[in-house]
């Protein structure tokens, strides 16, 4: 029997490396996770982008609605679909995604009707390593790197716990206190 809300496949799918689960994340500029979604291993990255953006909610300090639109989206070539670029442009999000080689080839083959090349800020794209470092940080937890859990809800819960700990470490306002000196026991004479 599954947990309530647990998919029938338990978020496990066959990919090149065997049975696996993919974790998709939106992170802020410091690599702290904002949104986490788990999919089966064979699921593509591109279809999850609208789901990630739909879940994005960053509370504002004080009053006001939570922020749902990031300033820019830095992503790899897997997210370079024309539909994604259009949707991001409609929401006023700066797109920093390189164009795939096949897209460039299609544009060139069409000649003057192929359209303009996409704008791409190479300096801003250099900061995309923040996403890769965030995933490297997540994989420091052995249970997350290897997925020992049978249910995807438990696995995602561990991802969320890791994210909470990461945020708490970042916003901690007091420095770590050194351990108190150990009391040594003196033998009685």
Largest sheet: 3 strands, antiparallel
What would the principal axes of the Cα set say about the shape?
globular
Secondary structure category: alpha+beta
Specify the number of helices. Answer: 7
Radius of gyration: 22 Å
CATH topology: Nucleotidyltransferase, domain 5
Ranges with pLDDT <50 over ≥5 residues?
A: none
Mean pLDDT: 84
- CATH structural architecture: 2-Layer Sandwich
Helix content: 25-40%
Oligomerization state of this entry? single chain
Number of domains: 1
Spatial arrangement of strands, main beta sheet: 1-2-3
Question: What would you note in describing this structure?
Answer:
The protein has seven helices and five strands. The model has no long low-confidence stretch (mean pLDDT about 85). Helices cover about 35% and strands about 15% of the residues. It has helices at about 50-55, 80-90, 100-110, 120-125, 130-140, 140-145, 150-170, and strands at about 15, 20-25, 35-40, 70-75, 95. The chain is an alpha+beta fold.
Write the topology of this structure:
Elements: E1 13-15, E2 18-27, E3 33-40, H1 49-55, E4 72-74, H2 82-90, E5 94-96, H3 101-110, H4 122-125, H5 129-138, H6 142-146, H7 152-171
Parallel strand pairs: 4-5
Antiparallel strand pairs: 1-2, 2-3
